[in-house]
């Protein structure tokens, strides 16, 4: 599960489509007043191509999402952190 960003410039190189996923791995931990989602973002040229870059990331969540909504919440956070990008598929 992931999504493709259209014309994204990774490392300042020529813009290209980049596939973004978390490869199904994440952790949700309880902090003092919230939950923290911890995951690794994988950047690839396409779904089954080699990983170009991987990046550890996290964000806080006030209320724990239902299990069905965890991936949606994580991917929404990734999209928001990438700024104004156009996705090709979700």
Question: Explain this structure to me?
Answer:
The protein is mainly β and 90 residues long. The chain is 14% helix and 48% strand. The protein contains one helix and six strands. Strands 1, 2, 3, 4, 5 and 6 form a six-stranded antiparallel β-sheet that branches. The chain is elongated and about 45 Å long. It starts with a strand and ends with a strand. The model has no long low-confidence stretch (mean pLDDT 87).
Give a short overview.
The chain contains one helix and six strands, in the order βββββαβ. It has 90 residues and is mainly beta.
Shape: elongated
Our Rg estimate from Cα atoms comes to 14 Å
For the termini, the CA-CA separation is: 8 Å
Average pLDDT: 87
Q: Sketch the topology as an H/E string, one letter per element.
A: EEEEEHE
Number of helices: 1
Helix content: 10-25%
Structural class by SSE content: mainly beta
Total DSSP E strands: 6
Q: Please summarize the sheet with the most strands.
A: 6 strands, antiparallel
Q: Which percent range describes the beta-strand content?
A: over 45%
Poorly predicted regions are none
Question: What is the fold's blueprint, element by element?
Answer:
Elements: E1 2-8, E2 16-21, E3 26-30, E4 35-44, E5 51-61, H1 70-82, E6 86-89
Antiparallel strand pairs: 1-2, 1-6, 2-4, 3-4, 4-5
């Amino acid at each position: 599960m992931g999504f493709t960003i259209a014309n994204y410039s990774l490392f300042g190189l020529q813009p290209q489509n980049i596939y973004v996923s978390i490869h199904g791995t994440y952790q949700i931990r309880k902090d003092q007043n919230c939950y923290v989602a911890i995951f690794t973002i994988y950047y690839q040229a396409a779904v089954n191509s080699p990983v170009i870059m991987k990046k550890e990331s996290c964000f806080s969540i006030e209320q724990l999402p239902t299990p069905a909504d965890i991936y949606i919440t994580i991917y929404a956070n990734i999209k928001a952190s990438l700024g104004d990008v156009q996705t090709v598929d979700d």
